Amino acid sequence: MKILKFGGTSLANAEKFLCVADIIENNKNNEQVAIVLSAPAQITNYLVSIVEKNTNINQMLEQIDLAENIFIEIIKKIKKIQSYFLYEETKKIITIEFNKLKKIADSIKLFEKCPENIQAIIMSRGEILSIWIMQNILRSRNYKITIINPIENILSIGGFLSSTVDINESKKRISSLNINKNHIILMAGFIAGNKKNELVLLGRNGSDYSAAILACCLDAKLCEIWTDVDGVFTSDPKKISNAFLLKSISYDEAMELSYFGAKVLHPRTIEPLKQFNIPCIIKNTANLKSNGTLIYSQHDCNQNIIKGITNLDNIVMFTVSGNLIKQKNNILFKMLSLLQKENIHVILITKSSSKNNFSFCTLAKEKQKILYIINKSFKLESKEELSNNIHIINNLSILSIIGLNIFKKHDLASKIFSSLGDCKINVIAISQGSSKHSISIVIETKNILKSMKIVHDALFCNKRFINVFLIGIGGVGKALIKQIFKQKIFLQNKNIEIKIRTISNSKKILFLNDSINLENWEKFFQQSKTKFNLEVLSNLLENNSFSNSVIIDCTSDEILSKQYINFISQGFHVIASNKKANTNSLKYYNNIRTEALKENKKFLYETNVGAGLPVIQTLQNLFNTGDSLICFKGILSGSLSFIFGKLEENILLSDATKQAKDLGFTEPNPFDDLSGIDVARKLLILAREIGYHIELKDIEIEPILPKYFQQYKNAEEFLYKLKEIDTVFMERVKIARSIGKVLRFVGTIEKGGKCSVKIEEINSQNPLYKVKNGENALTFYTNYYQPIPLVLRGYGAGNDVTASGVFSDLLRIIL
Ligand code: ADP
Ligand code: ASP
Ligand code: MG
């Protein structure tokens, strides 16, 4: 004997009814089958709204018509596909049932309320009619049917809307039916009968429970629950797209999953199956090939301890605090007993060890009832003090993580809380399930979906994701996108995935999705009509739900650089090739770092000095490990390295500068390079990194050019005027050469923090002697590195090297 239960999702239309009939036929060939049916999808919801709209007869009739039409449409279509279907007979029954409902609606209107026994009758019509339709499909295919009437045979105890089955008595009753072995057995789910043989319900979604009960009563070998998904997933697959199917889970795990909200199973389904040791398989009516999920007594040790992540919404949390609790130790106990007596289900409890307060969560719909109970029952116990000390939080959800002995997993808590914290999700309460198979977290409902995705990724995905929001698509930004695209497979093999979420310049922003390939992003960017400004940016920050989110600033925009503290406080790491933040006031410089420390976020700027050369990281490594500076000397400008190199080859200053400009080594107006200010900025960043508290104005700049050159704002004019000082320069070069030296534009940091940038004559022993052609070189004389300094040398400009520096910062977010 095998039980097959089909849920509403498997009976949503005529085609699905016929598909279910085919599944029954196929299974019937091997062994006797007993079928439990739910109402077609949405039907119970319509019936519930009849009850809810109990004062408005027109609205009640509207709902009744809606439900009736769905049934009529279903049978019309069945008749079309299977012409021999007993259509007229079925239609007659549907009409009778809905006429009954219309009469009930009239009397509800008259009495202006709908008692629970009548509610149960109304809400059960979907299941009753599903059975009629299915029996007529099967009869028309010449099968013999036995219908089990659940009102007479499934004895249930409790209220009319959510009662509990007495399995032993039901088993006795069903055994006495002596069902013919060749018959297909059909029974309506969701329905049972009380001692007085009145119809009662087993609670919403309760036909899974009916199937489990019938399996026990008929000594079935297996209970199959057929639905619209392949089985039990690590989370609701309709919400979490990368949730995956669990091949098998234990009874205890299934119980815990369903209790904490995995709707695929009614919470009470598993208990009876476990008691009678009947395995259960969850299968998909729309995918017969899938093996589904097996729920049974074994526990597969090879599987991940964590089985799933679930959610319960519409939760309210009561917190009771104050002296009263301290004085009257039994108040928690008393409150819980009162709630239990009123059948109010407490989902979760937390209690502070100081005994000064406790909190409990229930469904929000119970809130008024609970307040009423407190008001009524605590009269003698300083009711006023109690009610003054009750704090209620609405609109909550409970996220639970389920797995057998889940607490054995030592890194669980850190993964959960760091991933939620990373996305700035506030945890309101935490509770360990008394079974030790779950951990539950109370959070605001507005954050539940986001939190489920985050926690699911943190616990089930070995991959580490970095989510990039790129601002600035000049040479460096573009080169960075290319490099990320090129390294995709290489990084995937290391379980790293970099997802660029947005790309923007000062005007527009492109939101990337899976259809936009990093190879063709420019086409989509051109088509994008979404404007980019600080408001768009702030919306983006607020709504971001990704962990390891990084803003990369590849602009030279000062306004943007002033937003970094804001970015960090909103949960982003910041990577800047833009130097403006680090050369801003010392106060801002320090504030960024304080915020980053507070928020546990990274602020990385390796490319601020020497482009891709590992300058900042090297310095941090040295000083973190106790080294100290004796002296720094460096060539920090690629353009000045090129120009001063050319002077040695007897090329005039103006010609060398023009060549540098033509090769793209200089700013649009080369005056900006020759002014020395850019070198001073880099020196400032280095000095601050070493620990000197200085401002840009503290750096002594010995100008390369006479002051009057400032007036030449136009590059052509500037280059023309530069000729006026060619001979002076040539003379300096000659003098230096006569004593075996060359001219270099050098930045210096002395011990104590004095900084200067100036032209220096360098002898052949100095590591800077050979540095030209656009190369940068940085020499650090330190306690550890002396008398021979630590030298970093290489190209200090260029899109590819700068982008690779930004890229390596990006990987430091997770490595
Ligand atoms: P039926 O009508 O067949 O009883 P339900 O809607 O009651 O179907 O239950 C199936 C639904 O349960 C799925 O469509 C899915 O969205 C939801 N669900 C929630 N959590 C899970 C989970 N962990 N695994 C599979 N499905 C889940
Ligand atoms: N039809 C009922 C409901 O929607 C029972 C069930 O589907 O299991 O709650
Ligand atoms: Mg269901």
From TrEMBL:
Pathway: Amino-acid biosynthesis; L-methionine biosynthesis via de novo pathway; L-homoserine from L-aspartate: step 1/3; Amino-acid biosynthesis; L-threonine biosynthesis; L-threonine from L-aspartate: step 3/5; Amino-acid biosynthesis; L-threonine biosynthesis; L-threonine from L-aspartate: step 1/5; Amino-acid biosynthesis; L-methionine biosynthesis via de novo pathway; L-homoserine from L-aspartate: step 3/3. Its cofactor is a metal cation. This is Bifunctional aspartokinase/homoserine dehydrogenase. The keyword ATP-binding applies. Residues 399-459 form the Aspartokinase ACT domain. In the C-terminal section; belongs to the homoserine dehydrogenase family. It comes from the Bacteria. One of its GO terms (molecular function) is NADP binding. GO terms for biological process: homoserine biosynthetic process; lysine biosynthetic process via diaminopimelate; methionine biosynthetic process; threonine biosynthetic process. It catalyses: L-aspartate + ATP = 4-phospho-L-aspartate + ADP; L-homoserine + NAD(+) = L-aspartate 4-semialdehyde + NADH + H(+); L-homoserine + NADP(+) = L-aspartate 4-semialdehyde + NADPH + H(+). Residues 2-284 form the Aspartate/glutamate/uridylate kinase domain. Homotetramer. Bifunctional aspartate kinase and homoserine dehydrogenase that catalyzes the first and the third steps toward the synthesis of lysine, methionine and threonine from aspartate. Keywords: Amino-acid biosynthesis, ATP-binding, Kinase, Lysine biosynthesis, Metal-binding, Methionine biosynthesis, Multifunctional enzyme, NAD, NADP, Nucleotide-binding, Oxidoreductase, Sodium, Threonine biosynthesis, Transferase. Residues 614-811 form the Homoserine dehydrogenase catalytic domain. It holds the Pfam family ACT_9. Its EC number is 2.7.2.4, 1.1.1.3. Residues 472-606 form the Aspartate/homoserine dehydrogenase NAD-binding domain.
